[in-house]
Design a protein that fits this description.
Length: 650
């Protein structure tokens, strides 16, 4: 069909398309290499399979948050793949008129073409009619890609119809093409024009994708393949002895994986939709953190690539604001719902570290908070010598008197000093005693686990407290540590190994167990029996550092069901639980923007109509109790830790 000149023109266009397709990808590769080294290439087979599965199954898009959007993405993906493969037939047809796609391929292409048009229409309506607040506006990327999807599809159908009309004696199973053929002339010129129109649109689509946010088609699967195998709460340990700077000041302080996140971002806004700070009117938008990082990297990184001596200016005050980074509760909702598994929290904490350790700029409330941690090893500032006072008058073994003990009950700061949470400690002690568990406590030897300091960006304080606690663990060689606080649990479980390695200590952490897990185990093994509370309904609040960050959802629910209690779930539960507002060290900071996070969660628990809300975290107990008090519902609704509920029913 093509003349010799047309064939030459086509081959030149094809060559240029290939070159210009890879040009921005090579630039992105160079920009990502500006980041620090990070090991993400273990288990290569598993990682490659994850990438393939994520690309072809789109499991990341078809999620609870946006099922219809996920289905629309499937139509667009397989529409693109179908058009890409059938366009190969069309290209070959230009050189050999006897080459035609198989009938089944033609039928699928026609079906998919309808799906692509409907899917594109769905996104146009959602973005420009419904106009979700979490979507990004002000750029032409989305209109351009929508236009290209429509023109690629329509020109494909146009060429298909023109081919059927020209070859009038040839039967075709293309049901859409047959309809369109009835409207078109049997013209060789029109056939050739429609062929060129489709090919030009295909090449335009291929050239545009890597130059837009839609490069996530390639970077997203790569990002999923390179996901961390650690808990989402995990933070990299800073080597304070050798590091030239602390935290994240510029892009070169980030890892290459941090920078890759920006190019993998779909710009879907799921992270912002589920972020408690964003949903309560704070300045923080997790999506904006990623997008602004990417857009600025494209500008500043290009200067760095051009001139290696160029110093990229600091990110804070220029790209990001203090209001953004100090609004994060580190709850992990953003990372839970991200289709491409972007890692928002390490970037935010990294910038906090830079602010705290390099510039001494942080919320004014943290002056006292840090001083309390440093001098008394607890956020409230109670004298460290009084940490074990709660044990007075109780028959409790201390590790100092039983150095061979295998089980430690780690009480934590809240359980030792906060009057409300001391009741939880006493309840847990009574459960352990009733079950005949041979355990000890540390009393005055216990220190803060370091989580509040670390989430507030004070890596120095964290490492100091971690070293003290590791020394105690090594002294007694416990085999199991039971914690009431999910923050202690998560920090011990996910971050102390790195802290020990940094000091060169040969140390294996004992088994770390949360008290909700341990209580469930005691019940299931018949170590304790509890009476049934028939016809009583309660609701359960999932702590972020127990659920999302460590995947413990069913154990506390099993305990509730073992008591015969009717569990009525809140609107947002399990992996979509709404944060209490106390994480990220915000228990000790003023919440002066928008609505209070604990008030929103309190409204959700009040909507259940239950008179008891159960949780498994001292932060959550405090924040939800405060929320109920602020709503004047103290007489109607009680907040209880799971240990208190079980202790009452033994």
């Amino acid at each position: 069909m093509l003349t010799f000149i047309e064939s030459i023109v086509f081959l030149i266009m094809l060559g240029l398309t290939i070159v210009f397709f890879f040009t921005p990808l090579i630039r992105i590769f160079k920009l990502v290499k500006l980041g620090q080294k990070e090991k993400r290439f273990d288990n290569p087979v598993k990682r490659v399979l994850n990438a393939i599965a994520s690309f072809f199954l789109l499991l990341c898009s078809v999620k609870k948050e946006r099922i219809f959007a996920g289905l629309a993405h499937i139509f667009l993906l397989y529409g693109s793949l179908t058009f890409d493969t059938i366009s190969v037939y069309h290209i070959l047809e230009g050189f050999n008129k006897n080459i035609h796609p198989a009938n089944f391929h033609v039928i699928i292409a026609d079906l998919i073409s309808i799906g692509v048009l409907l899917g594109t229409l769905f996104f146009i309506i959602k973005r420009y009619v419904i106009r979700k607040s979490s979507y990004t506006y002000g750029t032409f990327e989305s209109p351009i890609i929508y236009a290209l999807l429509i023109t690629v599809t329509l020109t494909f159908l146009l060429y298909e119809g023109a081919s059927i009309a020209f070859h009038s004696g040839r039967e075709s199973v293309a049901f859409v093409g047959n309809i369109i053929a009835g409207w078109l002339p049997s013209s060789y010129l029109f056939l050739k024009v429609s062929w060129w129109m489709h090919i030009i649109n295909v090449f335009a689509f291929i050239l545009y994708v890597p130059r837009s946010k839609y490069m996530h088609m390639f970077m997203g699967p790569a990002n999923i393949a390179l996901k961390s195998e650690r808990s989402t709460s995990y933070l990299r340990t800073v080597d304070l002895e050798t590091a030239e700077s602390f935290g994240i000041t510029s892009y070169q302080d980030m890892t290459w994986k941090d920078l890759l996140d920006g190019f993998a971002c779909i710009d879907c806004g799921r992270c912002t939709d589920y972020c408690p700070a964003a949903q309560t009117g704070k300045e923080l938008s997790p999506k904006t953190i990623i997008i602004k990082m990417r857009d600025d990297l494209l500008i500043e990184g290009a200067k760095k690539l051009k001139d290696p001596n160029y110093q990229i200016p600091p990110l804070m005050d220029r790209v990001f604001s203090d209001e953004e980074i100090w609004s994060c509760t580190t709850c992990g909702a953003c990372m839970e719902v991200c289709p491409v598994l972007n890692e928002h929290i390490p970037k935010i904490i990294g910038m906090r570290q830079s602010r705290v350790l390099m510039e001494a700029k942080f919320p004014k409330e943290f002056n006292l908070f840090f001083r309390n941690l440093e001098t008394n090893s607890n956020p409230w500032g109670f004298g460290s010598a009084t940490r074990g006072v709660w044990t007075e008058g109780l028959d409790i073994k201390k590790a100092s008197d039983h150095s061979d003990a295998e089980i430690l009950y780690w009480v934590g700061c809240a359980g030792s000093f906060d009057d409300r949470n001391k009741k939880v400690t006493q309840a847990m002690i009574s459960i352990l005693n009733r079950a005949g568990v041979n355990f000890v406590v540390l009393g005055g030897e216990e220190n803060c686990c370091g989580d509040p300091a670390r989430r507030a960006g004070n890596e120095y304080l964290f490492q100091m407290m971690a070293a003290q606690n590791i020394e105690v663990f090594m002294k007694y060689k416990f085999k199991k540590v039971i914690t009431t606080c999910p923050h202690c649990f998560s920090t011990f479980r996910n971050e102390y190994d790195d802290a020990a390695k940094l000091t060169g200590i040969e140390f294996d952490m004992p088994e770390i167990v949360h008290h909700s897990e341990y209580i469930n185990e005691l019940i299931s093994k018949g170590k304790i029996s509890i009476k049934k509370e028939d016809n009583k309904t309660i609701t359960y609040h999932d702590p972020c550092y127990l659920g999302r960050h460590n995947d413990i959802y069913e154990q506390p629910r099993n305990v509730i069901k073992s008591a015969g209690l009717n569990l009525k779930e809140m609107k947002n539960n399990k992996s979509h639980s709404f944060c209490c507002g106390g994480g990220g060290s915000l228990m000790w900071a003023e919440e002066d923007q928008g609505e209070r996070i604990n008030h929103v969660r309190t409204d959700e628990l009040l909507d259940t109509g239950t008179d008891t809300v159960c949780t498994s975290c001292p932060y959550c107990t405090t924040m939800l109790s405060d929320g109920i008090k602020d709503k004047d519902k103290e007489d109607q609704v009680k907040v209880k830790d799971i240990a208190e509920i079980v202790a009452e029913l033994i």
